[in-house]
Amino acid sequence: MLDWLAETNAKMREGLLVAYKPWNKEPDIIHRLVVVLAELSGRDTEILAKIRKELEVKCKHPKKFRDIDPKSRSYCVCCNQYL
Q: pTM of the entire structure?
């Protein structure tokens, strides 16, 4: 889901910055608004990438080392990381 959001956001940003579109031909207020929207879209893409990196499971141990804590959350017995 995060990958899809990041891809869609990147495509929207690229579409906003296309040079031959009418809103990018003259440096008026609409052009400035498009530039600001593109910058915000770029930041959103970076934030989504950081969130995805945090959500990735870094445990490489086999499934036989997994257990469930009293709150029904799965975790690795070896590295004590929640999965």
A: 0.57
